[in-house]
Amino acid sequence: MGFLKRIQHYRVYRRLILSYLFLIMVTIGLLCTILYSMFSNRAVKEIDLSSREMLSQVSYTANVVFEQVQNITNQLMSDNQIITFMYANDDDKVANYNANLLLSKMQSVYPFLANISIYNFTNKAYVDVASLPPDPQMGERRQTGYLGFYPRKVLDGNGHPLQLLTFKIIPEPVFSGATKSAIVLDLKETYIQNTMSSISSSSSNTSTFVMDSKGTVISHSNSEQFMKNFSDNDYVQRILSEEGSHGSFVQSLEHHKFLITYVKSEKLDWVFVSARPYDQLLSNIYELRNWTLLIALFLFITGAGISLIVTGNLYNPIKALVDKVTESGTSEGKSLLRLDEYKLLSEAFSNSIQVTKSMEVTLSRSSDLLKNGYMYNMLKGHLQSSSYKGDIEQQLLSRMQGPYFAVIQFQIDQYPSFKNTFSALDRELIRFAISNIAQEMLGKIYRTDQVILEENEITMIIQLEQSSPDMQLYYILNEIQATVKDYYKTSISVSIGDTVSAFGDIESSYRSTQRYMALKLFWGYGSLLDAMKSIVPGEPIRYPAAMERKIIDAIKLCQPKTIQKEIAEWTSLLSRSGSPSLTLQYASFLHLAITREFESIVEWWDADPKELYLALNDLPQAETLDEIQNMMKLFCFRIVDMIEENKTSLAALKNSKVIEEVKQYLQQHYHDPNLSLEIVSDQVGLTSGYIGKMFKSMVGTSFNDHVTHIRMEQAKTLLAGTSDTVAQIGEQVGIYNVSYFSTLFKKKYGVTPSRFREQHQQNT
Fold first, then answer.
1. Please, what's the largest Cα pairwise distance for the chain?
2. In this structure, what is the dihedral angle of CA atoms 346, 351, 356, 362, given to the nearest 10 degrees?
3. 378-425 pLDDT, tens per residue?
4. Of 311, 402, 518, 695, which residue is the least packed, with the fewest Cβ within 10 Å?
5. What does 336-389 look like in DSSP terms, one character per residue?
């Protein structure tokens, strides 16, 4: 009853019981099925082999009989009395008697022969042993060879029917005319059937028969089937079509399965066939099946009992755990008994694990935050006023044994552009990836600790064994830069701080990394900066006021080339200072000077002067001198464009002269394939944007369209006046792509260059 209650109330216990029972049932079922199939298949194969051996023995017997028939024929053909009888022209009673006497002796030697007879078709003489009437059609039967065979039915002297297998031997082959004589040997059909019955111990329902190559039955276990043609049966057609000398297969005959076995005679054109009912073959197997089922049932009952015992022992620990979980509330215990025990335990353990993990994560985060806060304040120099003391400090001191320390700072280059390109989540992921790459590569050799400081910084504290970094550290840092560049298409600069020997002096190493990182202004993006790079040969310079004046004058004269040249010289002068702060300060001075110079003019043009001051906010974000130079150049060009756009009518007159100069230049250089607006603007000393707008407003067409018009007009002249190819003419007008040249020509004149030349030649 305890088992029944457990099965009724406990879902897991019920599943265990059913699982074991199902496993036992499937195992026993598969095992019994496999064994039964193996035994039944083996039995069928053994029976098939037995039938095949029986048929082979019968076939061998038939071959022996055939050989004896040939021997008998040879003996008869070699006897003078037989020869005398066969070739006598007149009926001779003495010769007939002698031949009959010899045939009787021969038949007594070979008792398997039912009759031996000789025909003389010349004198109509006939002698035999069994006193059978002569076959009137014997002389008319045609055969192509020396020996012929055919089955026949005759009546003996008492009128009883006989089924004979007749061998007809013609002593001399006759190709034309009638046969003169023949020796006939008759074999009872029952002789072959008795031979098969004596060899085989098959049941009465088994059909054994012999047929020729045409499907005619020569011998059959059922005498009524003698001389019937079975060639219409499917299994007979299959046997006759097979090329092998023996075989077997299963065939349905009259809605019953039969095992068909056949053997083909090597010498005779006979096929020996056995057809056994399939159910009789497996009669012993069916008994084996019944015993197998009984044994399987016994094993299943035994396995069920064992599974109940084993399941109970396995379930006891689970029940104890369930009782532990549910013992806190007796009111809930009864309802919990019908719940899934695994689900109940899983929820209990999951809650415990979740609480444990949550506490571990909280403790880990708290520890990481406390450690990072301590190191942050240590690097920033706020450690004296912070509350990060005690265990965190002791943990760091025990882990950071040195003997030397150095701070390494990784900074993402062009951070404003990086910030605009990626979302906050993507930036954090990339920053996390860079931190992991750096920590993994450095951690292979050095003991490292990461500190989270600024958004665009990744700071590492490494412990060294010597007072100065070795070359291996530089190789690793270069590899980190290359890896980040390859994977994230992001350039990073690296700064190595001064090496210190005391844990409390790490702040000074961090300060040195900031100083060295500022030198990126001179060394550019992707730099690896350290104390050696900080020794820049600087010279004390004063603010270059003269250069400032030249830049302002170039702006007033709207000379972009001069502006670009003067700004480049000004930047080159600042690069020799070796001071990033001084460089940024002087850049701000120049920007303010230009802004004050053109502030009033901008207001007079009804423009907002704040635009000039807002550009000053971008300067402190510049990371390299090239970036500062580009900012200043764009700032000056913007003022030049404003001046160009607001010139008076006098300026318009000057513009017309400029346009004429541009047109003249285009007429002279239209054949240059590199001809562009930038080249022309450099030629006249104005910006390309200004030239493009001015050309469009004064000429009425764009610069590119005007260049195309000049080239097409010149091409039309060359097509009409020269025999050069279209490609050559395209090159002469500055268009080296013949397909593009043909497209432009057809777009302008409506026909291709080749068609234009043909029309011109037809008109002239």
1. 166
2. 140
3. 777 666 655 555 566 666 666 777 788 888 989 888 888 888 888 888
4. 402
5. HTTS-HHHHHHHHHHHHHHHHHHHHHHHHHHHHHHHHHHHHHHHHT-GGGS---
- Same domain for 563 and 506: no
- pLDDT tens, residue by residue, 489-508: 888 999 998 888 887 788 88
Q: Is residue 667 part of a domain?
A: yes
Query: Which CATH number is 498's domain given?
Result: 3.30.70.270
Check residue 132 and report its DSSP letter. P
Q: Is residue 681 part of a domain?
A: yes
CA angle 418, 419, 425 (to 5 degrees): 110
The answer to whether the CB of 529 falls within 8 A of the CB of 516 is yes
172 and 146 together in one domain? yes
Domain assignment of residue 584, yes or no: yes
Q: Is the pLDDT of residue 203 over 60?
A: no
Q: What is the CATH number of the domain that holds 103?
A: 3.30.450.20
Q: Are residues 435 and 560 in the same domain?
A: no
* 451 and 549 belong to one structural domain: no
d(CA 96, CA 80): 12
CA-based nearest residue to 576, from 550, 546, 539, 602: 539
- Give the dihedral sign, CA 139/143/146/147: negative
Query: Between residues 606 and 160, which one has the greater pLDDT?
Result: 160
Q: How far apart are CA 52 and CA 60, in angstroms?
A: 12
Q: Is residue 226 part of a domain?
A: no
Sheet strand arrangement including 270-277: 217-220, 207-212, 270-277, 256-264, 246-253
- Domain span at 723: 650-763
Distance CA 254, CA 257 (A): 8
Q: By C-alpha distance, which of 638, 530, 626 is closest to 594?
A: 638
Position 332 scores a pLDDT of 45
Least reliable range by pLDDT among 187-196, 324-333, 657-666, 673-682: 324-333
Give backbone dihedrals phi and psi of 580, rounded to 5 degrees, phi first. Answer: -60, -40
Q: Counting beta carbons within 10 angstroms of the beta carbon of residue 71, is it exposed (0 to 12), middle (13 to 18) or buried (19 or more)?
A: exposed
> pLDDT for 575-622, tens place per residue?
877 788 888 888 888 888 887 877 766 555 555 556 666 667 777 778
Lookup: tokens for 108? 């007594």
Whole-angstrom distance, CA of residue 113 vs CA of residue 165: 10
Q: Is the bond into 753 cis (omega within 30 degrees of 0)?
A: no
Q: Which residues of 505-527 are buried (b: 16+ CB within 10 A; e: fewer)?
A: ebbebbbbbeebbbbbbbbeebb
Residue 307 structure tokens: 């599974």
Number of domains in the chain: 4
Residue 147's φ and ψ, nearest 5 degrees, are: -125, 130
Cβ count within 10 A of residue 679? 13
- How many whole angstroms separate alpha carbon 305 and alpha carbon 299? 10
C-alpha to C-alpha distance for 202 and 696, rounded to whole angstroms: 114
- pTM of the full structure: 0.41
